[in-house]
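Listing S7. Sequence submitted for prediction.
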Amino acid sequence: MLTRKQLELLLFINERLKEEGVPPSFEEMKEALDLQSKSGVHRLIVALEERGFIRRMPNRARALEVLKLPDAYSPTVAKKGTFKPNVIDGNLGKVRALHSANDRVPSPAANNNVVVPMMGRIAAGVPISAIQDHSANIPIPPDMLGNGEHYALEVKGDSMIDAGIFDGDTVLIRKGETAMNGDIVVALVDDEEATLKRLRKKGDSVALEAANPAYETRIFGPDRVRVQGKLVGLLRKY
């Protein structure tokens, strides 16, 4: 699964290749995505290449090839600004559909468990591009979930260990765009990077607080952080 910015860049590159036969320059990509620096473009390109969506051809300047588009997109790509990414994104804080229509409503398994989509990894440390492809389904006892739609993420990092959340744990998240002070949430920073942290609000500031003294609390303006869901459960293998 791609972040909003990753998807924007992929579609922009694809459209430019179709129209002109050559990919856009880093400067054009920076301006099209309203990024502050070309390093942000480079980070997005690396992420797309690692996920197998594009390929950089060696020894050639501006040589990018689009290998595939997400399944939700037809060969005819919408113009920039008209597409609706099928990812967790920061647009008005809403959580987009995280899985296919057939999986949208969890269905009970034979043992009365509920099937929840596993959506990749979430950082419990320095924020990373976290939400990936719907890689699997996992059965969850229904009394762990309650109302609403849910998804699961594998924890990467140790910044929440004092809250009992360890590297390699699976967290259960109830989709939503609001949370109370002190809730542990999936937070999207700058519409691009996702992390698992405790949410604190004071005035116009939003703090993402670690549960490990080795990590600093990070402070953001209110327009930079979007809540994508709240922690409701945890699974651990021994």
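Caption to Listing S7: primary sequence and predicted structure tokens for the chain studied. Confidence is low (pLDDT under 50) at residues 74-110. The first helix runs from residue 4 to 20.
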